[in-house]
Design goal:
Blueprint (H helix, E strand, L loop, with lengths): L1 E4 L12 E12 L2 E9 L3 H4 E2 L20 H10 L9 E6 L3 E4 L9 E7 L3 E6 L1 H13 L7 E8 L3 H13 L6 H7 L4 H12 L7 E2 L13 E2 H12 L6 H18 L1 H7 L5 H7 L5 H17 L3 H8 L19 E2 L2 E2 L3 H14 L6 H12 L3
Parallel strand pairs: 4-8, 5-9, 10-11
Antiparallel strand pairs: 1-2, 2-3, 2-7, 3-9, 5-8, 6-7, 12-13
Helix pairs in contact: 2-3, 5-7, 6-7, 6-8, 7-11, 11-12, 11-13, 13-14
Length: 376
């Protein structure tokens, strides 16, 4: 796309002296013309606008920008300059669009360029957070400005049409499960070691659901990949290790935990079924794995040898993990159902710390005091 002065075309109005010119491919959807183009990133913040956030929702064509999402998207671009991927923006143009087919081809040809007056307004129907992240990334790395992003342009047919486009574009959008995200993430070191554990560790091999983040009542798996990933994140937090060291330490930790939870081994030996264990015990649920990860992180940081943390962790064998244990109600269970809210994770961690004779942090102690008062 270029900013340029364009000579008037015969028969056209000459009131507009400056135009945006986009290389484009013309298409038709639902009887409406649209255009697909490429736009340099440096021009994205300049021409694509947001609705005023102060305008009432019913007279806006977009949702309010969630500014908390933007730094993560910006870091994704800056931290992965050689392999970041952004999908196309979708925008409506409130102004005239003149399509010119490639020279020498008839009017029915789809390839060419579009001319849009600079006075026209461009409204993003889908991709406002990507647009904001691009703007922020360009401030830190202006060299990104020459890279391009695909843009799909529609004629602006008014507020009602723009609102309907937003609804339609997002109606069937389904966020992939956390497990599938972990399965395919090649950048996250913890995701990589979690996949290796799930595929090769004798504790988890063939016991981990790799795609879904929930298990059906009849699933033959004990764990989900997303739950194991969260547990490993908690386990390795604060430990500055090389990837190989982290993988070896995580495997060593979970293999020792396995010796203290006999039901995991009985499932592998087919003496118990995974559905029965998940129904009757909480130790294979995400909240328990996360709590075990946090307990392990403290032990690993406070111990100089493997035998030291293993000796302290052995008390875990005395924990009654069954749902029938009334100690879990209000901690891992709410009304008899497993709950993984932040507060329930903290209270579950507290229970395990107390069992192992470990000190609670100030935040954990406040949560424990509230629980004992009946405020949790």
């Amino acid at each position: 796309m270029t900013d340029q002065r364009v000579a008037p075309v015969a028969g056209e109005a000459t009131s507009i002296g400056f135009e945006y010119v986009f290389p484009a491919i013309r298409g038709v959807q639902a009887g409406r013309e649209f255009f697909v183009s490429m736009c340099p990133l440096r021009l994205i913040p300049k021409i694509f606008l947001f609705d005023d956030e102060e305008i009432a929702p019913e007279v806006r064509a977009q949702r309010v920008l969630n500014k908390a999402r933007i730094p993560a998207l910006m870091r994704y671009i800056l931290d992965n300059p050689d392999d970041y991927v952004f999908s196309a923006l979708t925008a409506s143009i409130d102004g005239d669009i003149v399509f010119e087919s490639v020279a020498g081809q008839g009017p029915g040809m789809r390839a060419g360029q579009i001319r849009v007056p600079m006075a026209a307004k461009f409204l993003i129907n889908d991709g406002q957070h990507r647009r904001a992240a691009v703007e922020m990334a360009l401030r830190e790395n202006p060299d990104l400005g020459d890279e391009t992003i695909a843009v799909v342009f529609f004629h602006d047919a008014g507020l009602a049409r723009s609102q309907q486009m937003f609804a339609d574009l997002n109606r069937h959008a389904v966020r992939p499960s956390r497990s599938i995200g972990v399965l395919y993430d090649q950048r996250d070191v913890v995701a990589t070691l979690t996949r290796l554990l799930a595929l090769k560790s004798p504790v988890f091999k063939q016991q981990v659901e790799m795609e879904s983040s929930t298990l059906s009542a009849r699933s033959r798996k004990l764990f989900t990949l997303s739950a194991l990933h969260s547990a490993n994140q908690a386990l390795l937090q604060g430990l500055e290790l090389e990837p190989d060291q982290a993988a070896a330490l995580a495997q060593s930790y979970w293999e020792f935990v396995d010796t203290l939870i006999p039901e995991w081994r009985l499932v592998r030996e087919r003496k118990m079924t995974a559905p029965d264990v998940r129904h009757d015990y909480i130790h294979s649920h995400g909240i328990a794995l996360h709590a075990l990860g946090r307990i392990g992180s403290t032990l690993l940081r406070d111990s100089t040898t493997a035998s030291a943390w293993q000796k302290r962790l052995k008390r875990l064998s005395s924990v009654d993990w069954s749902r029938a244990n009334p100690d879990w109600e209000g901690r891992a269970l709410i009304g008899g159902r497993v709950s993984k809210s932040h507060n329930q994770v903290v209270l579950t961690v507290n229970y395990l710390r107390q069992t192992l004779g470990m000190r609670l942090s100030p935040d954990e102690q406040r949560a424990e005091d509230a629980y004992k008062r009946g405020d949790a």
